[in-house]
Specification:
single chain, about 375 residues, alpha/beta, TIM Barrel, four-stranded parallel β-sheet, three-stranded parallel β-sheet, 13 helices, about 40% helix, globular, disordered C terminus, Metal_Hydrolase
Length: about 375
């Protein structure tokens, strides 16, 4: 099904919130590993994982042949493992591993969109392309994994809102606000602010993972729909440049955004407990309605022990059950928070399109940041 000859890099494995009402289903810490794992499978059967970041399209382009429905050992993600791990939705990254400054950013992003659509069409029994929150539910009810296209690099716009609209027409749903002249250490330029307004109008979600603090703050303040961090953990626990300090986590939580903690050893640590520590911290600082999961499988990252591929989510949920996370909190973590953000983007887009025409804004190149 694929016809590109490069060798694929393999990944390796390493080693009560006051704002919520009393939950009659609050789970007490589980004593036995087997009992916790059994409860985790039962919970995930009702509330599957919406995985915020997968590098699968880029990984597949290196394989001469693959079958995701039968199973594919050369990647971390296939349909059997997603079913074992109770993955119900997957955000497919269109990021450019060679860097967002690539002069072929638009063409490379279009090639990845084309490949993603071909992969989905070739696996109709396991995958379904979706654009809205309602379509995610429909896919789940039909026993398919819902595939959301994005995030893509900001460089993929080539400083053109017309390109943004065409990418959206092809299915793009998430855009990372980094790698372009209109965003940087000093925040968004005036054109960058217009990008945020236009993605709100289209129903494309803003991803600020890896963005500067000024960009995060301005995007959160400007966006009419919740903002995503598709690959950000707690900087207070591990000072990785893509992890968020507590002040930004708190601001994201106040705006009902979503911090999706990545399952990578580099950002969170080498064990399941390290991942759970970050989830605990984000829940405490931003709130249980603002924390999600990001597998980052097939992205070249090294994963914590016992979280080597998409089938291993029950082991993480079992650890959280042992820590006393309630059923309500876990259902928000795995599924509910992503659904809320997608629904908000859909609603905001419908309302904005009645009030605002497509933007004709242009950029004349790098500009000074808008201080307001």
């Amino acid at each position: 099904m694929a016809d590109l000859q490069d060798d694929i890099p393999t990944t390796t494995e390493v080693g009560q919130d006051d704002d919520l009402p009393d939950d009659p289903f609050r789970t007490q810490p589980c004593e036995g590993t087997g009992e916790a794992l059994e409860q985790a499978h039962a919970l995930l059967a009702a509330h599957p994982v919406a995985d915020g970041y997968s590098g699968l399209p880029w990984a597949l382009r290196h394989l001469p042949w693959y079958d995701l429905e039968l199973g594919e050992a050369a990647v971390d993600t296939d349909v059997p493992r997603m079913r074992e791990g109770h993955v119900g939705a997957l955000f497919w990254s269109l990021h450019l591993p060679e860097g967002p400054g690539d002069s072929r950013a638009v063409a490379a992003t279009l090639e990845q969109l084309d490949l993603a659509r071909k992969v989905i069409e070739a696996h109709p029994e396991g995958l379904r392309l979706v654009r809205t929150a309602g379509q995610v539910i429909d896919a789940r009810n039909c026993g398919r994994v819902a595939v959301v296209l994005g995030p893509a690099d900001g460089a993929a716009l080539d400083d053109s809102l017309s390109v943004l609209r065409m990418l959206h027409a092809l299915g793009l749903r998430v855009l990372t606000l980094t790698g372009a002249a209109w965003t940087g250490k000093t925040g968004l330029t005036r054109f960058g602010e217009e990008v945020v307004r236009e993605i709100n109008r289209l129903g494309v979600l803003a991803d600020v993972s890896g963005a500067s603090a000024a960009t995060v703050e301005r995007t959160v303040a400007l966006s009419k729909t919740p903002v995503l961090c598709t690959r950000s953990a707690a900087h207070a626990l591990r000072p990785h440049p893509e992890n968020l300090p507590d002040d930004l986590l708190a601001g994201l939580g106040a705006a009902k955004g979503l911090c999706m903690v990545p399952l990578t050893a580099e950002q969170v640590g080498p064990t399941v407990r390290d991942v759970a520590d970050h989830l605990d911290h984000v829940r405490e600082v931003a709130g249980p309605e603002c924390v999600g999961l990001s597998g980052t499988y097939d992205s070249g990252a090294v994963h914590p022990r016992d979280l080597a591929d998409a089938s291993r989510y029950p082991h993480l949920i079992a650890e959280l059950l042992r820590r006393g996370w309630s059923e309500t909190e876990l259902s928000l973590l795995t599924w509910g928070n992503v659904q809320r953000v997608l629904r908000s983007a859909d609603f905001t887009a419908r309302a904005a399109q009645h009030r605002r025409d497509a933007s004709a804004a242009r950029t004349a190149g790098p500009a000074t940041s808008n201080p307001g």
